[in-house]
Amino acid sequence: MKKTILALRPVLPDEMAELDSHFNVLKLWEEKEPEEFIKAHKNEIQGVLSTYNSAGVRAAMMDALPNLEIISQFGVGYDNIDIEAAESRKIAVTNTPDILTNDTADVALMLLLNIARRGVEGDVFVRVGRWQKGPLPLGVCLADKTVGIVGLGKIGSAIAKRCCAFDMNVVYYGRSEKNVSFTYYNDLKSMAHDSDFLVLACAGGPETENIINLDILEALGPKGFLINIARGSVVHEEDLLIALQNRAIAGAGLDVFANEPNVPEEMLKMDQVVLLPHIGSATAETRSKMGKLVIDNFLAHFEGKPLLTPVYLS
Ligand code: 8YV
Q1: How far is the CA of 128 from the centre of ligand 1 (A)?
Q2: Which residue range(s) make up the domain with 247?
């Protein structure tokens, strides 16, 4: 008999069809009364397919699903899943690392280039006919500038590699020093002070919540730019607004926000920001690979094989 999976959000159509072929899939986003629906099916559900843009899986949901065995997250970040609660209930958790590293690093560089060289602004400038009235204000050169990366994990390292190709000087801050040639800072404020671009590539969750506050942004300074492809929770969004309004920093390139898909109203009116709708992993190829890995983790689990990409408490 097919196992029952509760999918909180859909994956791409091909992977959705594959998932349907292996499992009895309950599609929560199609339900008008999701809580009632979960209650009605609580005993059947053995797996949950979770995504970052869903409510995630907290202890209360785990308790509501007495036969839940595995949560397979469509994404590398899993700050919307209570890992401790899952471990204590012996519920397995998996994610989709590695396959989205390059795409996410590309988005960081897209933001960096656009904010420094006024790419998005230049496009609008041409379209609305302002070119005929004079040139676009000058941008900022990337070569020889210092980029401070917060979190030199896989995505942070892929960003560093790309920044090196642009002849930038790479430094980093994180929990521990790594065996790399880039300069390590164990103090975030000092690194922000020495950086022209502060790029956030760390994991979300309580450990990094609001680590970018007004103090750090003021250290980055009026010529500095903030780039965030990590999680909105890493930045104190009110402080960022103040820093942008007061020109305490030069600008920001943001792919993630505190309350997605909502972006602070004031930011929408600013021309010193580039705003993207959380597209780090959003390519057809990568989203398809992510969907396949989600399915393969479910299959491995239910066939009693080792999980491909398990997540454990660090
Ligand atoms: C989302 C992400 O998973 O991988 C992550 O951690 O934030 C993204 O790739 C994606 O937007 C689907 O929810």
Answers
A1: 34
A2: 101-275
